[in-house]
Amino acid sequence: MKVLITDEISKSGLLPILDDPRIQVDFKIGLPVDELHQIIGDYEAIITRSMTQVNRALLDRATKLKIIARAGVGIDNVDVEAASSKGIIVVNAPYGNVNSAAEHTMALLLSYCRNVSIANASLKGGDWQRAPFTGYELKDKTIGVIGLGKVGGRVALRCRAFEANVITYDPYISEKRAEDFGVKLVSLEDVIRFSDIITVHTPLNEETRDLITAEHFAGMQDSVFIINCARGGIINEQAMLDALESGKCGGAAFDVWSEEPPRSELLKKLIAHPKMLVTPHLGANTFEAQKNVAIDVSKEIVNYIDGQPLSNAVNIPRFDPDLMEHMKPFMRLISIIGDFISQLAPPNPHKITFTYNGKLARFDCSPLSVCGLAALLNHCTEQDVNMVNASLIAREMGIEVESARSTETDSFSNLITLSLEGTQGSRTIAGTLFEGIPKIVKMRNFDIDFRPEEHMLVMTYADRPGSIGKIGTILGNAGVNIGNMSLGRTEKAGEAMVVFSIDSSADEATLSAVKEAVNATFIRAVHIRQ
User: Fold this and answer.
1) Which mean pLDDT values do the consecutive 10-residue runs of the chain (530 residues) have?
2) I need a surface site. Which of 7, 181, 314, 469 has the fewest CB within 10 A?
3) Which residues, at least 6 apart from 148, have a Cβ–Cβ distance to it below 8 Å?
4) Is 455 a known active-site residue?
5) 281 is annotated as an active-site residue
6) Which structural domain, as residue segments, surrounds residue 435?
7) What is this structure's pTM?
């Protein structure tokens, strides 16, 4: 795999890909847009930070691109929708710089409260003054934290350590989570109304853009202090400037801007305001954070090559990180089931149903369904299908996809069933894990038990004495060795299904000979990608 790196990334964090002989890494830092467009077609992966714009214009030229890795949390510079439409996976590193962002927030907060930057400049300028730089303690202040996620939670804990009273607004957390941090969950209006200090820690999206406006500033306490180390645009910058100039806001500290680098007159005026403490998006700029995010995205690229689940893909349904290790074997199982049934079922299905029984059904199984759908559809279309675009392609093909869950199961602690319906009838296959190993336990109405191997042979025929011997003889004469065999039948001397694992593939002539010898009603060679 060829990987292009376009921004400054910690090389020590890139060791997982630099040390992998399967990966060629090219560093092309700060390329002009036209040059980047010229070369992007040669690469299967790109690693960026925030300076490279991975937009539709670039993606239209990225004919080989499989994965976009953003070494950081925000993906503002990546057109995720355009990438998804092309089946390109987008991954980020949402946890590597969490601690750095929280510490930078505290650095700005403490620096402002104790006038560190202006006192430093004054003393270096030759003055010895103390009274103008009298500051404020955090103890007993009310600090409003908007967004109690990975960063906001750490900021809340650190503020609590300074004996501040912390209240929080986050519509997506429970009161229990707020209690775990020792903070009180309140409405946005109450954060605005009661806080001496307000700090925001949310992503930037349609819901959070201009989350704090002039109307909110009007409802704040006089001399309130505002911090934004999250994303530019969450706080309306014109409203922020107006609040500073009117004296409503006592001061602010910003690390992020709606335009980076800032060029507009509004931003230049805001940055220059004497009550603003500013830094050029340094929240993640620690040596530790840069190494951590580089490690995280490098591991994701290696996982992609190895066919392993991706923990931080932003455009793939995924499990909670705590569940991922537990679910990996089930993702392998459902990929095999989808791959298997797609080679046996009639073409043009109009409905696909995933059913989950047992302990597995207690969890959201949508990532499993998408994984199985991708494996299945890869045999139904010339387009490369993966977990990014599987649902979109199914809709375009007019295929209805459903899923069902039930904790009840008869014979297995966990069971995954995949059913296809089409004009030529329906097909069903079910599988489970036995000591972590995938097994197929049902096909159509036949109870069966086998471990899927790379090369397999599936057939149905009328159960007659000597049939298995004839099949073995023909395969042996063709140089095809049988590894295992699983037989299922509905009744004695009735229809039987047999599944062979074979050491090598069987050609069409061999299949025709077997079919004729036992009068098989169905015979198909299956190849399972390992």
Assistant:
1) 94 94 95 95 94 94 95 86 88 88 96 92 92 92 93 95 95 82 93 96 87 95 95 95 95 94 94 95 90 94 86 77 78 92 85 93 89 84 73 83 88 91 86 92 90 93 89 92 89 84 92 93 87
2) 469
3) 156, 168, 170, 173, 177, 178, 181, 183, 185, 201
4) no
5) yes
6) 321-527
7) 0.62
